[in-house]
Write a structure and sequence with these properties.
Blueprint lengths: L26 E17 L2 E4 L2 E14 L1 E2 L4 E18 L7 E4 L3 E9 L7 E9 L19 E11 L4 E12 L2 E4 L4 E5 L2 E13 L2 E12 L2 E3 L2 E2 L4 E15 L2 E13 L2 E15 L1
Antiparallel strand pairs: 1-2, 1-3, 1-19, 3-5, 4-5, 5-6, 5-7, 7-8, 8-9, 9-10, 10-13, 11-12, 12-15, 13-14, 14-17, 15-16, 17-18, 18-19
């Protein structure tokens, strides 16, 4: 029966500074590489295996256009395409490996600079994920979800002064039904999934920023063929991020992280996210 690995390629995941506006009128091309390793597997908060290994190597291409609507309001339509490879080992080897494309995303993000002393930011994003990715109901691993997903994301960035800021982001995901799940083609339903992230960010130099923080995921309980699975998510993770402008129009970002606590599924023992941004 397919495992759900959409979170491994979640295109709406944010990093510190993402809700600062792209320069007005500019186009940003973002290229991501995500590497994560897991060995522990949990069910209902209990560790059921310490040799259930998963390695994910994912890439994303993201195109963002900044459209200034006023001096303070920015609109950023965007398109996101994930792809990559999942590899298993240990007791998880029976799941096999998977390569291919993830589900295509279209997003619309509005960012408003508030008239506060240091220009706090308020953001709202809407993302629609289409069932275009690789999916086979007979495969245990899939990069596509074979369903639609709608994500509503809100953000507030508080600037304490010219160097220190706090990024807070919350989102909720809703899913349509997957009518072709598992070898029998059963109906797969998932309830809303919620995520909250917070990062304390320090502008170390004009071109360099450091951030520390993390997030928490909850919800997403599923049912298969009408049978409740008792698999609600409760995951807490930590992240450390370094962002640096190599050139005035080229930015690089390195992020390290791991899961702190997991209720269901794989527990990441380590994650490396790399991002390169080119402004046109």
């Amino acid at each position: 029966m397919p495992f759900g690995f959409a979170e491994a390629v979640c295109a709406q995941a944010t990093a510190p500074g993402d809700y600062e506006p792209v320069p007005a009128g500019k186009t940003a091309l973002l290229m991501y590489y995500q590497h994560a390793r897991s060995a522990l597997f949990y069910r209902s908060g209990h560790r059921v295996s310490d040799d259930f290994r998963l390695r994910s190597d994912m890439g994303l291409l993201r195109l963002v256009q900044s459209v200034p609507l006023s001096e303070r309001l920015y609109w950023e339509p965007q398109a996101i395409l994930p792809f990559g490879h999942l590899r298993t080992g240990g007791e998880a080897r029976v799941l096999g490996n998977e390569s291919g494309m993830g589900d295509f995303n279209l997003g619309s993000v509005a960012k408003l600079r508030l008239p506060t002393r240091h220009g706090d930011m308020l953001g709202l994003g809407v993302f629609v994920q289409a069932p275009t990715g690789s999916y086979d109901r007979d495969d245990a691993l899939n990069l596509g979800e074979n369903r639609w997903r709608l994500v509503l994301q809100g953000a507030y960035v508080h600037h304490f002064d010219d160097r220190w800021s706090l990024d807070t982001v919350a989102d909720v995901s809703w899913y349509t039904r997957n009518h072709d799940y598992g070898p029998t083609g059963a109906n797969h339903n998932q309830k809303a999934r919620y995520e909250y992230q917070a990062y304390l960010r320090y502008q170390w130099a004009p071109a360099t920023a450091l951030a520390i923080g993390g997030g928490h995921v909850v919800g997403g309980r599923t049912s298969i063929g009408g049978d409740e699975q008792d698999d609600e998510l409760r995951t807490t993770y930590a992240r450390l991020t370094l962002t640096h402008f190599l050139l005035p129009d080229v930015q690089a970002q390195v992020q390290l992280g791991r899961d702190i606590a997991v209720e269901q599924g794989f527990k990441e023992r380590g994650r490396l996210n790399l991002r390169l941004v080119k402004l046109f």
